[in-house]
Amino acid sequence: MDYPVENLLRRPVEFIPAGVFFTAALGLVLMPETFLLPPVLAYLAAAGLVLHAGWRLAQGSRLLRYQANLKRLPRYSLASEAIPWSERALFLGMGFQWDRRHTQRLYDAHQPEHRALLQPSMLYRAARRLERGVEGTLFDGLARISRRDAWWNPLAPLPSVGGDPAIHGVEPDEDAVWMDLSERVGHMLVLGTTRVGKTRLAEILITQDIRRGDVVIVFDPKGDADLLKRMYAEARRSGREGEFHFFHLGYPELSARYNPVGSFSRVTEVATRITNQLPKEGEGANFAQFVWGFVNAMSKAMTALGRTPSYQDIYHYANDIEPLVLDYCQFWLDRDPRAAGWREEIEALEVDPKSLDRAMKNRDLGVIKLLEYIRGKGLHDDTAASLMKIISYEQSYFNKLVASLIPLLEKLTTGKVAELVSPDMSRLDDRRPLFDWMGVINRGGIVYVGLDALTDYEVAGAVGNSMFSDLTSTAGRIYKHGETYGQSAPAAKRRISIHADEFNELIGDEFIPLLNKAGGAGYQVAVYTQTWSDVEARIGSRAKAEQIGGNLNTLIMLRVKNTDTAKILTDQLDEVELVTSMSASQASDSNNPLDFSDFTSRNEDRLSARLGPMIGPADLVRLPKGQAFALIEGGKLYKLRMPLPDAAHDPMMPEDLAAVAEDMQSRYLRVTPGEFAPGSGWGSGLVMGDANPRADDDWLRQAVVEGKGSDL
Asked: What's the mean per-residue pLDDT of the chain?
């Protein structure tokens, strides 16, 4: 029978009838004649009593287990190789679907009369006092015994996860929680304060993506060595270590190389990726527009000359644009039939220095003659016109306009980091591999991107933003040319799983179209951050932040400390009816001598109901580490807990980064300049984007055309 109140916090009185029935069954078996029954009937009756006693015993045991779970959950750990995975679903952890019953149970557990059920016992508290008292003495061995986390020790310390275990303990029958893979293209948001399990959840999801054969791209602004080692171990376990790419701004000598502005669908993307890093408030917005046009003019000229744009080249020409003007104008005039014999005419051209504008007086004479010739002949080229306009600015005025660009480019082109983000493709002695996203997707790669944001926040943000822009551009190419564009196995569409930890440090305007439109290209994005306020602060607009949040259909929320962040989940849930019980007692006497009764009494339990939230912000603040609420598959609410990593040694896990480095360096040395080893590992293919390789890179261009490897 279903009662309106479950009353799971009462004493387990079921043990009393269970004991009575067991005793009666024993009596029937041992002394059937006492009950005037033949042995056969006595044994049958005893069996029935035992079954009934067992049923009552199970009821009482379930009640005790429920109450014990409110204080201490059973340990849940998994070795890495034991993490389950599927081709059709994504494993999230152990848990259950939360409904009104669990809200009621949690409400009941927090009532004052049940406080003792949520607190450790007196023996437990005494054991902790003993441990503190004997610490550092001869009796410290006793403390080691009481601290032992073993099945035989009822006084073992509670796990150091904090929070309120009753939130998960209200359902003793948990099961594995899976999410349909078709929901992944709707993208996922993971929220949780620092050190509560976001990285552990990321490891579980990334492990499954690697084993499933997805293209896996992980952005880690902090540069977490444990996450890097876990990815590398899983790549080895899945036989995909040859597809593993390691990009890390903090370890330039070990890292692969990547040109954030070298691959694009339209040349205008180069200017957009760079100017996205500049301030756009107030007067900065006007300067950003000028810088965009300035960088775009340089990018068009370099692309036309067959050069791949890079931060290094843009920084060089931003400081001295004259060489680029000369190179491009000569390139253009050599191909324009209207300018036949232009070299001889320029040689004969006389220029009066007094007639020059103030801005042109300090320019190279060759540049001045070239511009005078173009104007005198009435020749026109869009790119040349843009360059000529730039060079005609007075130097001090020009320096003010690009004042915000030069410091950014200096940071991106200083030290060894410059070799990573502005790779010189003509250097044959640099054996570090070079990758781009189209090549990674083609090879089915696994990429770890460590941005070392704690060392240099601005450089990390600039590189991360450019990578996101590049990924968005790549999604556009896949949209235009089909799902299997650029993939070596056209019969099978590869899913592209992108994980962005601390994504508030990387986010920019380019992230909005990545979420809006990239699902059809096979992109499935999971982003991790501490509070939603961080996103709003970074993007600079509440409306844009809500636009981003509106494209993250799956929400997993661990412990948060910000009430506004908690309301992102709680405001999406229905209110439920909470039942409260109140005991009422009444007595009345009578002074009527004709009335037989002297007094009457009445005792009753009154039930009342009120509306309340299914879960409140306070519940999210009290979550233990490694636990979360998940809103998945169209609004289904699940309570989850992630498995702790098993303490057993993982044979695939490298001891430290030095082991990873040693293996990576051995891969670099497999190929000597001019030789190629298709499929031998790391590289993703030297894809140049839409820009042509330089003229002196013929052997590189030939490698691309022939589809040979890129382990350079």
From this structure: 84
